[in-house]
Amino acid sequence: MFYLLNIFIQMKILLNNTTLFESLRPFNDLGFVPTMGGIHKGHLSLINKSNKLCKKTIVSIFVNPKQFNNKKDLNSYPRNIKKDLKILKKSKKVDFVYLPKFKDIYKDKKKSKITLLKKDKILCAKFRKGHFEGVLDVMSKLTKIVKPKKIFMGEKDFQQLYLVKNELEKKYKTKVIPCKTVRDKDNVALSSRNLLLNKSNLIIAAKIYETLVDIKKNTKNKKNIPSFLNLKKKELKNNYKIKIDYLELRNIKNLKLSNTKNNSRLFIAYYLKNVRLIDNL
Fold first, then answer.
1. Which residues are catalytic?
2. 9 and 94 part of one domain
3. Would you say residue 97 lies in a domain?
4. 99-103, Cβ contacts within 8 angstroms, sequence gap of 24 or more
5. Does residue 187 belong to any structural domain of this protein?
6. Number of domains present in the structure of the chain
């Protein structure tokens, strides 16, 4: 890791908490972009937003094992720290990159007290037991360490954004800033997991997005939206040979099931080539 320090002169790499505390002490207007690596244009858009609203920007790269409910998923998650650092350096928008070890984040070995309310055990929380407890725990710990003024998160994982914003803004003097989902030329939502897909898989993902747009449009004239979505869910499964965890229309303010297109988003989670993808629109 140390050879990297000579390459990245302006962008300071923070390998432990001691270095982080010393480096960040002079700054009280920090923008924070938490990531698990696999840096793509979606992450860069968060960094650009941070640059506009904050004096300094820090990006963290930490694959948090506690938010994976599937060991195979954890082991297959894309990791290429050297490539990530080159992309971040090339952007010329990042002041600090925090590369913590597990012990830097979880030095306190006390069991997390974070639990989801029954009303929040929906969408991904229903299908990925313990996932969001792990996300909220690590985000709380990272916020406590970094002490950012603003945290920038994408709307692609809207449920994560919703839960993190509600949790952190109550506990810390920080604001969670929502940022629009960034898509590729075929409108597939950018995700680190896309690196696990081949071209034919991505073509299918693009077709699924087109179908979702049509489904969302047609909810406007449907009296029984859950029944309509259940039918469309079966069609998607048959047409694209995919497994679907959920296809639901929910209110953006409270994530309750919605019977109207207004103030609502269509949420989906599905498996393509054993890779779990999520989207909302």
1. 43
2. yes
3. yes
4. 99/1, 99/13, 99/14, 99/15, 99/60, 99/61, 99/62, 100/16, 100/17, 100/60, 100/62, 100/145, 101/16, 102/65
5. no
6. 2
pLDDT in tens, 56-103: 999 999 999 999 988 889 898 989 999 999 999 999 999 999 999 999
pLDDT of residue 49 exceeding 50:
yes
Average model confidence (pLDDT) for the chain? Answer: 94
C-alpha to C-alpha distance for 140 and 105, rounded to whole angstroms: 10
In angstroms, the CA 136 to CA 176 distance is 13
State which residues form the domain around 119: 3-179
What is the band of 10 on the pLDDT scale with cuts at 50, 70, 90? confident
Per-residue pLDDT band at 112 (split at 50, 70, 90) = confident
In angstroms, the CA 50 to CA 127 distance is: 32
Q: Which helix (H) or strand (E) holds 165?
A: helix 158-171
CATH number of the domain at 197, please.
3.30.1300.10
Query: Considering 179, 202, 231, which residue would you say is the last residue of a domain?
Result: 179
**pTM > 0.90:** yes
